[in-house]
């Protein structure tokens, strides 16, 4: 597994406002959208392209376009939905699959409540989006499912990661073609499995408490 922390002043600035507990839901959603666009720029550096012959108004020339098969973007519901638009804005040809997953707040175990993705992902580049990599349980299970379906290149785009989650990913996904792109790796997890300093519950901050 490869880890890439995007070190950029615009990313750091937006992340600081996102973390701030006074930031309201509408602003939080806008910042998450802006941040994923900046992270996606780095995350798609190896997106597959093919040669494209075109004519400008002046002369014929050769450029590139995104290859087939199309990349797949998979937001992990709920909070990952807030990163979907920003991702597909940069990858306009992408197909979108959905994974609904929730972490049990007592046991911290992730479970899947909805899956809508192609059965066969062989030869596909897949971009999973979820704002938080905490214990890593959610992302490891999501990526194992993608690899089981044949995905041969998976990039997870997260806003924040905990060192504990990164370590689990490295252990559980050793030897797999996985990259994690994040705006920051924070200090640690607290006793409730929340990232410190983090930003709280990303899903609740975007959409309100689901209770
Ligand atoms: O790394 P982990 O310890 O597994 O935790 C991370 C997961 O927790 C959050 O989702 P949550 O379960 O709160 O669901 P939600 O998006 O519906 O709020 C977050 O969006 C991740 O999916
Ligand atoms: O800090 C955390 C950890 C898991 N899920 C969140 O939304 N926030
Ligand atoms: Mg949540």
UniProtKB/TrEMBL annotation:
The reply on keyword Transmembrane is no
A family per Pfam: UPRTase
Q: Which positions fall inside the Phosphoribosyltransferase domain? A: 5-208
Which residues are involved in binding 5-phospho-alpha-D-ribose 1-diphosphate?
A: 78, 103, 130-138, 201
Q: Which superkingdom? A: Bacteria
Keywords for this protein: Allosteric enzyme, Glycosyltransferase, GTP-binding, Magnesium, Nucleotide-binding, Transferase
- What pathway does this protein act in? Pyrimidine metabolism; UMP biosynthesis via salvage pathway; UMP from uracil: step 1/1
* One cellular component term from this protein's GO annotations in UniProt: cytoplasm
Textual note on the cofactor: Binds 1 Mg(2+) ion per subunit. The magnesium is bound as Mg-PRPP.
Q: What is its EC number?
A: 2.4.2.9
- Relay the activity regulation note: Allosterically activated by GTP.
Q: Which cofactor does it need?
A: Mg(2+)
Record GO biological process: UMP salvage; uracil salvage
Sites binding uracil sit at 195, 200-202
Q: Report the HAMAP family cross-referenced here.
A: Upp_B
User: What function does this protein fulfil?
Assistant: Catalyzes the conversion of uracil and 5-phospho-alpha-D-ribose 1-diphosphate (PRPP) to UMP and diphosphate.
Q: What NCBIfam families would the database entry show? A: PRK00129.1, upp
**Which family does this protein fall into?**
Belongs to the UPRTase family.
What protein is this chain from?
Uracil phosphoribosyltransferase
Q: Which organism is it from?
A: Streptomyces virginiae (Streptomyces cinnamonensis)
């Amino acid at each position: 597994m490869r880890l890439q922390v995007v070190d950029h002043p615009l990313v750091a600035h937006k992340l600081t406002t996102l973390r701030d507990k006074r930031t309201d839901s509408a602003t939080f959603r806008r910042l998450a959208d802006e941040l994923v666009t900046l992270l996606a720029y780095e995350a798609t550096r190896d997106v597959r392209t093919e040669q494209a012959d075109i004519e400008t108004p002046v002369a014929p020339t050769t450029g590139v376009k995104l290859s087939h098969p199309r990349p797949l973007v998979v937001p992990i519901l709920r909070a990952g939905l807030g990163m979907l638009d920003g991702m597909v804005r940069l990858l306009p040809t992408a197909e979108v699959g959905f994974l609904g997953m929730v972490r049990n707040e007592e046991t911290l175990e992730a479970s899947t409540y909805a899956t809508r993705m192609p059965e066969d992902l062989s030869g596909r580049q897949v971009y999973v989006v979820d704002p938080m990599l905490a214990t890593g349980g959610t992302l490891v299970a999501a990526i194992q499912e993608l690899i089981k379906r044949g995905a041969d290149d998976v990039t997870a785009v997260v806003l924040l990661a905990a060192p504990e989650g990164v370590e689990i990913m490295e252990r559980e996904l050793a030897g797999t073609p996985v990259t994690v792109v994040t705006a920051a790796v924070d200090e640690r997890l607290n006793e409730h499995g929340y990232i410190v300093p983090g930003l709280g519950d990303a899903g609740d901050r975007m959409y309100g408490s689901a209770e």
